[in-house]
Amino acid sequence: MVQTEASEGRPTRLSRTIQLVLLVLLLASFASGFVLWRGASAGEKGDPQSLFSSEVQARENSSLMAVARAIHGALNPLLCVAFGWLWRAHMMGGWRMRANIKSGLPLAILFGGLILTGMLIYYPEVIDGTKNPKVREQLSRLHLWFGLALPAVLMGHLLGAWRWAKKVSKAN
User: Fold this and answer.
1) Which of 4, 45, 56, 64 has CA 20 to 30 A from 83's CA?
2) φ and ψ at 66, to 5 degrees?
3) pLDDT digits over 48-84, tens only?
4) What's the CA gap between 93 and 99, in Å, rounded?
5) What is the C-alpha to C-alpha distance for residues 51 and 43, in angstroms, rounded to an integer?
6) For the segment 98-153, what is each residue's pLDDT rounded down to a tens digit?
7) Which H or E run includes 53?
8) What CATH fold (topology level) applies to the domain 16-171?
9) Going by C-beta distance under 8 Å and a sequence separation of 6 or more, which residues neighbour residue 157?
10) What is the pTM of this model?
11) Is there a contact between 74 and 33 (Cβ–Cβ < 8 Å)?
12) Where are the domains of the chain?
């Protein structure tokens, strides 16, 4: 498997390059999602300028929202590929080794949930046959909560991996 730095006892460890690529993708997705969330929050309050003090800044907010939406949407296929790759090259090995499952399983569910809710936000008719705005709103809220939880769950997984590696190195 190309992705690993096969240190003894850690065949599923991701290389620094893969870690960096995943970090950049996740940070870009988180940042663009944050901008979309804040912009949507401003619109929900009935004041498109609530984040900004002038009409010029409100127009810039609209442009920023368009850029953030484009970035967030463009990252989706890349994150889907990353998830599939992680599933095959990292998660399956970790599952076989019974390593870090307590934090890895919630992370995989959360990551998969983000992909699924993201897709359903774009195609809500898959759920009820219509483009019901209430369905989209509920999906967006769920997607937001998944996105906000991801950094903490990812950090928990990294901490669990560190602990697991420490335990394995003591056993050897």
Assistant:
1) 64
2) -65, -40
3) 444 444 555 555 668 888 899 999 999 999 999 999 9
4) 9
5) 10
6) 888 999 999 999 999 999 999 998 888 888 787 888 888 899 999 999 999 999 99
7) none
8) Fumarate Reductase Cytochrome B subunit (1.20.950)
9) 100, 103, 104, 107
10) 0.81
11) no
12) 16-171
